[in-house]
Specification:
Length: 191
Amino acid sequence: MQFKTTALATLLSAAACVTAQEENPSAWTTLSHTATYTGVAATDYATTFGIAVQPITTSVSEAPKEQKEEATSTSDAPAKTEAPEINVKVAACANEGTLRITLKDGILYDGRGRIGSIVSNRQFQFDGPPPQAGSIYAKGWAITEDGNLALGDTDVFYQCLSGNFYNLYDQHIAPQCSPIKLQAINLVDEC
């Protein structure tokens, strides 16, 4: 009987540690992006929002991805203490099944409380908490002053055709991928 009591106490203690880690984002801060968006962006947005895919058309002023990566830099300067005022200007009707997102301290949460992250195959998805094992980034998200979702120092993502649907990635991983921006959209429940 004493063995069963000890085993049960150990199991409950381990479960409490796992639960605390799942709900404590500081336990996985190593999944933070090392760079920050260079323009005006907010890492907190109090209103629940959705996202829309906005294709990027190549223009003369847009450099190829390789050149963009060579030109980026990071700064060890402290982040601004004042939160920028971001005003999402686009709205859409919310339906059953609409992805509802919140942004708090650079972490994306969906309506089920799952964490928005870039996982090991570079795909953007919601899991956990905690983020899926092997995740690359789970923190470092922001909304730019243009209303786009950003991760680290970029607001460019990629949609890649997979059968008759698209998956979203933070890098160009295959020929069937095209650059996009993820536009934040205010959700309206009564339309």
